[in-house]
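User: Predict structure, ligand 2-acetamido-2-deoxy-beta-D-glucopyranose.
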Amino acid sequence: MGMVRAAWFLLLLALLAAADARRQKGGETACDKGWECSGSRFCCNETITDYFKAYQFEELFAKRNNSLAHAAGFWDYKAFITAAALYEPRGFGTTGGREMSMKEVAAFLGHVGAKTSCGYSLADGGSLAWGLCYNHEMSPSQSYCDDSNELYRCAEGVEYYGRGALPVYWNYNYGIVGKGIKQDLLNHPELLEQNATLAFEAAIWRWMTPMKRKQPSAHDAFVGNWKPTKKDTLSKSRELAFEHMMTSL
Ligand SMILES: *[C@@H]1O[C@H](CO)[C@@H](O)[C@H](O)[C@H]1NC(C)=O
Ligand SMILES: *[C@@H]1O[C@H](CO)[C@@H](O)[C@H](O)[C@H]1NC(C)=O
Ligand SMILES: *[C@@H]1O[C@H](CO)[C@@H](O)[C@H](O)[C@H]1NC(C)=O
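Assistant: Predicted complex:
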């Protein structure tokens, strides 16, 4: 999985860098102040819509509407941007200058791609082209209900299998994430496979929020807001710490 993520990340960076070069060369206006900007003071200035456009999203997730893709027609650019706009004021894709911002979005989408890909190395276009193929776990082996959790009790008739852009599993995780994005995911986990904006919101919320006490968020680890201490077994590099963060998401 680590290799797959790394490959995703490099591909995304290459695409973003190419687009950036094109943009600067062409001297075109970076933003048309369209729907994606309404209500955001961050919009169109070193923000995600400034360096990551719809056509790039289409290129990155080229096979997601293919007839073989399980979530065909579900994911779109607008959903990602709408969700991202809520977290840009908190630094998502807007921290540390353009290069760092682009890298963070690439890393985030790389993880999303790796976790939602149905591609195999022999798939048409290679496995990397098949991100956002799923929006939920296909053959759950259980309902992921932890009865011992008193804070987030399982709702009746509801299953907590993996759903979303960075799939959420288990009642307690649906409870925590639901609280984070202000949606009743404990009673309605299906929202994450019915609404792509909420699916991205949940994923970005988890990216921005520490999942365990004394751990940084993936965002903080990635942009360098958090420095590993000498005692940390994972202090070798930020990348390793970051990988560790991701596996705990
Ligand atoms: C973009 O943001 C920078 C830094 O916040 C600011 O200095 C600059 O004036 C802004 N440019 C525009 C066109 O809003
Ligand atoms: C894929 O489907 C989405 C949602 O229906 C749509 O917005 C997008 O344009 C489609 N992309 C392609 C490449 O067909
Ligand atoms: C998805 O959720 C968002 C945020 O709550 C909401 O604004 C939007 O209307 C929903 N979309 C659909 C298709 O239900």
